[in-house]
Amino acid sequence: MKKKILWLLQMALLLPVLPILGAIKVKSVSEVRDKWLDVTPGRASYYEKEASVAGADWEKGASDASGAFKAGISAANIEQLFKGGIKRAGAAKYERKVKDVGVVRFSQGVSAAGPDFEAGVSPFLDEIAKITLDPRQPRGSEANYGRVRMIGIALHKKRLALRAAGS
Predict the structure, then answer these.
(1) Which of 22, 110, 143, 145 lies 20 to 30 A from 7 at CA?
(2) Is the entire prediction scored with pTM above 0.70?
């Protein structure tokens, strides 16, 4: 009797799972797309509320994932996967997205990025201001390339120092 009750209980618990064991009914891609297009734009307030305060979680998660990032970019076939993704998306999608999305968002993005741009470029402008270049030589002189090299070396060192400091 105890075994029969146990079996009935197992069957009662399994019944909701039985339809999953057969073929899974999937909506058509156009139905899924239409619902996504209809519902998702109305979620902007949720995005603003949740994403605008998730910086600390993002920073911790991204930092904790640095090992996975290294493993991912070091995978044996990563170049082929990267190229495959580019080929799959294609130039037509890139150009369509620029026209349909990028142009509209461009000026707003630039305005919003002002403080970040200033913070990002400031250390490099300060570094350039510290450089005393060798005197300029006549046009075409190989010595003039040394002036450019001085700037390149200083900026590269600054970039590495900022990266090491986490800036």
Answers:
(1) 22
(2) no
